[in-house]
Each structure stands twice: as C-alpha cells, then as structure tokens.
Amino acid sequence: MTFDLVVRNGLVTTSTEQVRCDIGIAGGKVAALGQGLLAGTREIDAAGKLVLPGGVDSHCHIEQMSSMGIMNADDFFSGSVSAAFGGTTTIIPFAAQHRGQSLKKVVQDYHERATPKAVIDYAFHMIISDPSPAVMTEELPALIERGYKSFKVFMTYDLLKLDDYQILDVLAVARKRGALTMVHAENHDMLRWLADRLMEKGHKAPKFHAVNHAKLAEAEATSRVIHLAELLDAPVFIVHVSDPGAMDAIRRAQARGLKVYAETCPQYLLLTADDLDREAMDGAKFCCSPPPRDRASQEAMWRGLIDGTFQILSSDHAPFRFDKTGKLAHGPGAPFKKIANGIPGLELRMPLFFSEGVQKDKIDIHRFVDLTSTRPAQIFGLFPQKGTIAAGSDADLAIWDSSKEVSIRWENIHDNAGYTPYEGQTVKGWPVTVISRGRVVVQDNQLRAERGSGRYIERSVPDSAIPLGRPSEAALLARRFGADDVI
Ligand code: URP
Ligand code: ZN
Ligand code: ZN
User: Fold this and answer.
1) Among 68, 316, 317, 343, which is best to mutate for testing ligand 1, by the most ligand atoms less than 8 A from CB?
2) Is the dihedral of CA 364, 399, 461, 179 positive or negative?
3) Which ligand is nearest to the CA of 183?
C-alpha cells in the first residue's frame, strides 16, 4: 500500500493504549499502524514525541452573537486556526437561535459562516431559546433527523432562559428522538435578585459578577434539571460545571444510574474569583458564567475529572475583545451586568490541561486523551471517525513535544480576543504538529491549511453512546395506570 503521509516512530497514545509505531495515512484516513511501514509520499519524524488523537472541543462559541447583541471576537477562520494551534482538530460550536428566529434558518446561517472559513472539521450543537410550537413539532424533530443531535438550553439569561415547563418539552423531544440536551444550569431568580441588590448598593465593578453568580444558584439549578430529566428518563449534559455542590448532585445522580453527563473547563481548574478583582476594568476579562470560584472548588473539579464524574474537559471558548466591540460595549465603566460573558480558551485548553494535569501527575495520559478527545467524540456522535487513532478513523493527529516549554503571551495566541486570561503562565508540553484528515494544518509554528479546508461532519449518536437509564417512579406509576402515552 502507498501512503500519502507516514508519521514515524512516535509514541502513539489513545485513551486505552500506548505503542511506539508508525502511522500510515491514505485518503485522509489512518490506513495502517505498525513498525517499519513503507515510505510515504511525505514523512514526518515523530521520534521522541507523543502522537495523540486531535482534540475534540465540544463546547465553544464562534461567530455567535450574544443575547446582549455583542459579537464573538472570533469568526470561523480565527477560531478554527486557534483551535488547531492548540492541538484541537474538531470543534462543535453552537448554532444559536435567538427568540423569534427559525431554528432551521439559524443552522443554515452557521453553515454559511463556517464553510468558507474553517480550517479544521466541525459539527454544530444548537441553542434553543424559543421553543415555539413550530420549532418543537417541526423544525427540531427534522433537524435531529438530519443529525443535529444535541442542543443547549439555558436556565438563566433574560433573553435565553427557558422555564421548567419548556425544558421538560425539550427533554421530551430529546428523549423520544435520541438526542442529548445540554444545560446551562444557574437559578435565574437567585441571580436576578442578587444582581438587583448589588446594583442598588452601587456594587458595579467586574468582581461583583462573582458575587452575583453564587455557587448555590448553580447547585440548585443543576439538581433541579436532573430531577426534570429523571421524570422523563431523558439524558442530560450539564455544561461548564464550576461548583462542588453541583458536581455532588451530578455524582449522586450518576450513582443512581441516571443518564447525567457533565463537563468542566480549564478556567474552573486554574482561575479564581480573585482574578475578577483586578485594577480598573481588567476583571472584565475574567467574567464568564459560571465565574471562576475558589481553590477548594478547583480541587473538587480536578477530583471530578479524575474520578469520572466529568466525561469531558471543554474550553467554553466565548471570546470578546476587551474594547467597545466586546467586553466594554456598554462603556469603559460598564456595570458587571452589562459585560459580555465569556473568556477565550480554545487554543490553551489542551496545553494547560496537559501541563497542569499530565505533567503534574494528576491526570494519566490516557485519561487526558479520553477527556479532551475520545469522550466528546463518543458522546456527540463523532466516534470512531474522530477521537481516536485506529485503522479507518480520520487521520486527525496532534504530535506533542512534552518537553517544550511555552510562556503564554496573548500576541502568540491565534484567536482574536486580544488577551488571554493565562498571560505570563508557562506550560510544559505543546502540540508542535497538527494534522487534520491527513492534511498538515500546523507545523513549525506556521499555519499550513487553507481557509475553508475544514469540513462539516455529519453525526450519528449510536444508542450505545447514550445508554438508556431507568424509568422514573412517576413513569412506572403512569404506565401502571395506563398513562404510558404521557411519560
Ligand atoms: O460566560 C460564558 N460561559 N459564556 C458563554 C456562553 C455560555 O453560557 O456558555
Ligand atoms: Zn452556558
Ligand atoms: Zn458556552
């Protein structure tokens, strides 16, 4: 067999195995794994390096308008380039519906944004903010049928939030059609009440965002949505978990056999609320929801990654520039309520986690691959095309130099936020060559891929990815009394 590319002598590492061998690539796929493969048209020497599956970042916001009407700093070019430089070869951003919009049209719009620009492969989740009868009975079922099998709902934000009744409607559709509901879980009224009191007392600086988004609001909403999901025996995925109380609720639900999945993000491992308490408006650079918490919460999040409560480490990349087009759209002294929520993190997700987790012996290399690539691919229906290195899978590879030290400077990061929350930190370990479907995308710190060369990946969520849980007591009673047409 002739290979287009052979990656030679790397320590090839998946979520379960590690072996020193060559990888032969043909037609964008892994064609052979073994020692002493025949020469390829092109060769890359990976001796002394780790060869990992390219990362799959299943939570990022790109070219998305926030509900406040502020545009993300990244379009699909800068966002995907930044992802690639950090070792990620597949992204799943959101096609975000705002109220009054057709979900079908929203998805089409996001395809139009991504197709000419993305340099790596992508799929889309949807955000449902307007579950109108037309959306719920026609558009959503049709989109699920076409492979858009995951969608996010919000329990807070004035213009995005669904009430419990609406969330039950969404969960019921997801349950019936084999889709997965992702939930931003924070108690809206707790947040609203606290924000009003803070503003009344004149507490407007960015640091009050952390007071506003109390941990209890996250814990309460997480428990509540787990109960909503249990009622219908619907799978649920809790995004960007930051609070130990929320994590405990997730862990208890999992121990009871419920289909509850969850993720956390680097900002909840490495930043704290004190980062919001910076000079002038600099704290705005760290305003995201939920906000970074405290050291004890960071330790709890690490435990959740180690013990399997979290299946995924995502970035929740939500970049806004630190100027009047982004964070400061409501003026240089805007109150915390008017600061766009979100921080950049696509590029540094894996280097930070590798450096802090693998290098410091908190996270085993296989678990690193699992959390950053394999499990997101499995849960969101991209596996085994993505998320592993195996014959027949896409040749999406990141070749890591685990001894390379990089001092983080915003000017070296490829996203368009114009700052990084991790400025000045040093990481050890960096993905020096990144390959997507056999194409070299990043090498020698240079972008080698063309704009628009990334592809949309159709998804199928196999039943085994989201195993059925067990019916709730309410469902069992309904069945016993002949109301099994309800739940
Ligand atoms: O603050 C955040 N996380 N912004 C992005 C949107 C979201 O809630 O995930
Ligand atoms: Zn969210
Ligand atoms: Zn997000």
Assistant:
1) 316
2) positive
3) 2
Average of per-residue pLDDT values in the chain: 96
Nearest ligand to the CA atom of 341: 1
Which stretches of 76-212 are assigned E, i.e. beta strand? 88-96, 121-122, 125-127, 150-154, 180-184
Name every protein residue with a CB atom under 6 angstroms from any ligand 1 atom: 61, 184, 240, 288-289, 316, 318, 341-342
What token pair was written down for 68?
């406040």
One-letter amino acid at 412 equals N
pLDDT digits (tens, 9 = 90+) for 56-89: 999 999 999 999 999 999 999 999 999 999 999 9
Task: Kindly indicate whether the domain formed by 54-380 is annotated with CATH number 3.30.420.40.
Answer: no
Question: In this structure, what token pair is assigned to residue 335?
Answer: 């109150």
- Confidence (pTM): 0.97
Ligand 3: centre distance to CA 479 (Å): 37
User: Where do we find the tokens 């509540």?
Assistant: 224
User: What is the Å distance from ligand 1's center to 44 Cα?
Assistant: 38
Residues 6+ apart with CB under 8 A from 125: 58, 92, 93, 94, 95, 148, 150, 151, 152, 182, 380
